[in-house]
Predict the 3D structure of the following.
Amino acid sequence: MNPTLPRFFWSEYRKRRKRAALITFALFWGTLSILLLMAFGQGMSTQSRVAFSGLGETLVMVYGGQTSVVFEGLPKGRTIRLYPEDIDYLRDRIPEIRRIVPESYNGWPVSAEGKEINRTVHGTTADFGVMRTQVPQMGGRFINADDDRQGRKVAFIGWKVASDLFGTKDAVGRTIVVNRVPFTVVGVLKKKIQDSMYNGPDADQVYLPFLAFRQIDNQRYLDQIHIQPCEASQAALIEDRVKALLGRKYRFDPADRYAASFWNTIENNKQGEAIFKGIEVFLGIMGALTLLIGAVGVTNLMYAAAKERTKEIGIKLAIGARRRTIVGQFLLETLFVFAKGTFWGFILAFDVVNLVRLAPINYDSFGIEAYLLRPEFSLRTFVIYMTVLGVLCFLSGIFPALRASRANPIESLRYE
């Protein structure tokens, strides 16, 4: 860098310090706005993925139903049930299935240590814990294959069930009575965000090994089947094959959407992510427009400076200053104004984001606050911010600088 540039720059900047202060504040405010909006947008997008994963990230749930069309001489209105043997039937015929588990449930009284509550009790198998993100708290576990194979009287309970029955005591190893049958608690669900559910949040549920559940339940059929594809992109293919196989087995039209219904959480996740991505982009654009206002202010400031210093520029050119020195001086002044405003905007935005993240999320009343209380800076946010800033900084400085450097020295010396 030409050593005369910093001297020129500092001398001129001190003369226009008060005017530059307003532009610096505009850049500070623009930086604060764009970073906060992008951080909150990124946080909402991340939290939506976390909330969706509370149910299970790649799941296709299959339910029975009632036929709505006549098929092969059979009347419409027939009830279609799913049964435990359908698990092996589908697994053996659809190689794209990674995991498949049954689930049945019923509402029963659950009691322990003199307290009794009514909760939905589920019967399922070990893979359910992985598929439905049933992460146990430290010291506990979910139902395993041996529990189900041997029909052990063990239970995995939600954290609210544990709190209602045992208060602050450790529930693992204690006994609960489900429908008058004692079960030993082997794990308590770790707190999680969950915005998609059936029969209420998992925090309020009780899970038993499938075989043990069927020993105390008279229901022969399944309430639903959970399927996890090998690849998320295979969900639609699996859905079609399940319809065809169940239609062949239970004799209904595979095109009859009421005979067997599906809940494809993969599609739900895609839709949710698209919505939050749109919000994130919108917030980013609003912040960029705010920063643009500051950039326009910088451009006006530099144009005004170039006009006020016409005679000075003419003298510099007349005594031999190179045009690139004039361009460099104006670009350096622009860069300094940008750097000063955006630096303090970045510092404040960083502090605000970290301060907001200190707020605890109330898992018992999960709502919009869980999306808003976890803003985050990401590498993508930083790259976008620096790109927008660099473009605006260059455009704000280059045109006034070029105009100043192209001045005619003789005409400039006549300027008053």
